Every structure is written in C-alpha cells, then in structure tokens.
C-alpha cells in the first residue's frame, strides 16, 4: 500500500478481468472457474471468473472500493508530480481515465485506443525524457533519486 492506504505499484488495478488468450484467463479456464459472461464486459470492472478465496461479489466490491479510492479527487491530487510542469498533464490523464472508464468499451470496440491514448503517452514520454536530461545536467549520481510525487499530507 502506498501513502494514505492507496494501492501502490505501476500496473493499475487488475482484480476482476481475465481476457481470453492471457495467462490470467488460462488458469481460471483450466480450473473451470470462468463465469458465463458477455465478453464485451471483460474490461477490468466486471468479474468474469470465480476467485478461489472469495465470492465474485466480494471481488467486485473490493475492486469498486479500490477504484473509488485510487481515483478520488484527493488521491489524484496527492499523487501529483513534484515538477510543476508535469502537474497539469498528470491531473488531466488521471481525470480522463477516471471519467472515461465507463465509456472504455467504445474505443476498444472500434479499435481507436491507440489513436486516443498515443498522443498523451508520447507527450508524457517526451516530458519525462526532458526531465531526466535536466536531472543529469543539474544533479550528480550521489544526490540520489529525485522525488517523483509530492506528499501533500493527504
């Protein structure tokens, strides 16, 4: 867990989904734990397999709690980058992700995800590379890593 009880890690929340063709799908399938489902709902927010140690309803409730907590306005604000020029893009991407999750099936269905996300990812990548270059010019290796997130007492 990160600060304030927010799940830490770089991979997002991966509790409820299991997409066909992935290892996360293969194991429940082999063990007969897939639930009858409309596969268009395999979007991380719908439970499509029976977990081993809880009910599907408990998994859905836990996922919902984590999602609401992770993408609350307070949590998004607390995770903002320390670099002032990175705050707006970071907040925009977090809010966009939070608000667009209910509509995510549309770009997936029409194969528009790359077109929608590529510019944001590229903008973030370029900003990050520039930040790293500035760090290399202004800080020695003994100075330690630069802070990535502002702890705002949240």
Features:
single chain, mainly alpha, 6 helices
Report on the architecture of this protein.
- The protein is 50% helix and 0% strand.
- The protein has six helices and no strands.
- It folds into two domains: 16-70, no CATH class; 82-139.
- By secondary structure, the protein is mostly helical.
- The longest helix has 26 residues, at 113-138.
- The protein has helices spanning 23-30, 56-70, 73-78, 84-100, 105-109, 113-138.
Brief description of this entry?
By secondary structure, the chain is mostly helical. The chain is 50% helix and 0% strand.
Proportion of residues in extended strands: under 5%
Q: Stretches where pLDDT falls below 50 for ≥5 residues?
A: 1-12
From the spread of the alpha carbons, the general shape counts as: elongated
Span between termini = 14 Å
Q: Report the sheet with the most strands, covering strand number, pairing sense and barrel closure.
A: none
- Find the count of extended strands (DSSP E, 2+ residues): 0
Order of helices and strands: HHHHHH
Provide the helix percentage.
40-55%
- Count structural domains: 2
User: On the 0-100 scale, what is the average pLDDT?
Assistant: 75
Number of distinct helices: 6
Structural class: mainly alpha
Rg, Cα atoms, Å: 19 Å
């Amino acid at each position: 867990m990160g600060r304030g009880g927010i799940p830490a890690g770089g991979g997002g929340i991966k509790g409820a989904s299991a997409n066909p063709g992935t290892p996360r799908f293969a194991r429940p399938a082999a063990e007969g734990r897939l639930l009858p489902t409309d596969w268009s709902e395999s979007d991380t927010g719908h439970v499509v397999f029976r977990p081993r140690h809880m009910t599907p309803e408990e998994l859905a409730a836990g996922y919902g709690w984590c999602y609401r907590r992770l993408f609350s306005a307070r949590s998004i604000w607390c995770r903002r980058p320390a670099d002032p020029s990175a705050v707006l893009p970071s907040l925009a991407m977090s809010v966009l992700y939070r608000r667009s999750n209910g509509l995510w099936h549309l770009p997936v269905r029409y194969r528009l995800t790359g077109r929608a996300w590529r510019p944001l990812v590229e903008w973030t990548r370029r900003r990050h590379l520039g930040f790293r270059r500035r760090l290399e010019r202004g800080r020695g290796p003994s100075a330690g890593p630069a802070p990535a997130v502002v702890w705002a007492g949240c």
